[in-house]
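Dear support,

We are seeing what looks like truncated structure output for some complexes. This example has two components. We would appreciate it if you could run it in full and send us the complete token output so we can diff it against ours.
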Amino acid sequence: MIIVNLDVMMAKRKISLGELAAEVGITPVNLSILKTGKAKAIRFSTLDAICRALDCQPSDILEYKEGENYDE
Amino acid sequence: MNTKRKNISVKISLVIAILVLAALVVFAFVLPRLVDYYTSLRGRSEFLTQNDKIAVTIMLYLILIPAFGADISLISLLGIVNKGNVFTLPSVKLLRFISYCCFAEVLLFCAISKYFILGLVIAFAALFLGIVLRVVKNVIEEAVTIKEENDFTV
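Here is the complete output from our reference environment:
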């Protein structure tokens, strides 16, 4: 499954959830959903904005881990 | 449709649902008299014995139970619509319950058609309504999944 490592990258850049949300242009609630791994999908536009705000690559935020599946 | 008109539309539905509830309550009170009146009509008393009269009264009261259930569910469904979260599991549950009420009415009206042949027509109408509501329930169920997917897309 895909692991969201947004919190690690945010800690590296020393940016708070509210600040990043404002910079990316989404609500803190939605960013929190992404950060805690509850999100089911991420728009390319959101990913683009986050990568720009954090000055990083998608691979810094997203990681593939073998094992667990998504099937409900 | 703009929000104001939508709100008025929901209110109209709510008023109708409450009026139906009031009508059901009134009907429940005058039901024995209605049965008396029906059986006193010319020619009827020969076909309907005292036992039949009691059976019809009981069946009519049984018919009222799912009607009450369905109407109260409709009122709470309208409450959910008013709050703006139609596409959630509670509304699916309510719709399923209302469709079951319709199917219960089908059985009851089939039973009462022994005395009033027109009961079969009502039974068929209830059957059709029940099926329509089931389909609506399936559609809403699908919409709940899509909405959830959409809510968790950032």
